[in-house]
Amino acid sequence: MMTLANQLRVLTVGTGAIGAFYSWRLQQSGGCVVTTVCRSNYEVIKVKGIKIQTAAWDEGPHIFRPDHVVNTVPCETFDFIMVCMKALPQVYNIADIIAPAVNASPNAAIVLIQNGIGIEDPIKARFPRNPILSTIAYIGVTQNEAGVVFHSGHLRDLIIGLFEPVKGVDAKSVLQIFGQLCEKADIGTTITDEIQSYRWRKLVWSVSMNLISILSELRTVSNVLASEKYKQLLVTVMEEVVALGSALGYDVPPTLVGQSIATSESLFEGYKASLVVDFEEGRPMETEVIFSNPIKIAEKHQLTHLIPTWYRMHKELFEYLAKHQAERK
């Protein structure tokens, strides 16, 4: 039986900035043994560990040495399989990637620390007997070089909820245990029964700022806010995301628009939204889970009339991305 009294076994799949930071904190709790799956940074982390640069803790230097470092997902038993890879269904199938560990761990909880809407569905379809802990991270971390993670500020929050009940499984207890482990690790932890509402709340900023930063070619948050034209467009798209989320029955308060603008204004000069960075670097972008899935839901429920500006810009974005991809070839 899984309890905090035992050493829990955690597998991290995707040991980039997010995966490395939260794996480090969980290990620091003393309540778990951590195995990390590393690919491009495998050799560096195997030998030197991961340097965590942060002002959130006074002690240092912070060197995270996972209990085990592997370069492929092992066929071993774990209590929690923590997925920190970007949700890129157009590039890879996460269910296929984690299958060896899940198949060996019929009681493991799958923790999805990812952005977007609809990320849980393919995992649930493949592994219906494993609890899925849908998780949203609010944190500023980057890994600009292999084995070095920079944590900006003190925010390191996780909002965690059970995706769906699992018949015959006490999934709520599993959720509580993971939440307690996170609290023990000094991670700001919120357990909620309304995780999808929180996903739509995060979408208010993610959709609007990424769309407008890319299409306007202004790129940075500060540049967008400095333009009255694009700042107003930003507010319009935010209001439409709120309207769609609310119409679908989620708790997405209109006050989020003002809060999102205030948060944007507090970011450092030159800050760029995540998809903007991926676009500029020529990396795959989380366009499907952040942009396309919500649009498909709006179409399915015949609610596109609530999002005229967002709906138009969604089409323009994919035309813009296709044009730039062709030019890069």
TrEMBL record:
TM annotation in the entry: none
Top enzyme class: oxidoreductase
Keyword Oxidoreductase: yes
E.C. numbers: 1.1.1.169
Record-annotated Ketopantoate reductase C-terminal domain positions: 195-303
GO biological process per UniProt: pantothenate biosynthetic process
Residue ranges occupied by any Ketopantoate reductase N-terminal domain in the UniProt entry: 11-163
GO cellular component assignments: cytoplasm
GO molecular function: 2-dehydropantoate 2-reductase activity
Catalytically driven reaction(s): (R)-pantoate + NADP(+) = 2-dehydropantoate + NADPH + H(+)
UniProtKB keywords: NADP, Oxidoreductase
Highest taxon of the lineage: Eukaryota
NCBIfam families linked to this entry: apbA_panE
Family as reported in the entry's similarity comment: Belongs to the ketopantoate reductase family.
Protein function: Catalyzes the NADPH-dependent reduction of ketopantoate into pantoic acid.
Protein name listed in UniProt: 2-dehydropantoate 2-reductase
Species: Lobosporangium transversale
The organism's taxonomic lineage, starting at the top: Eukaryota, Fungi, Fungi incertae sedis, Mucoromycota, Mortierellomycotina
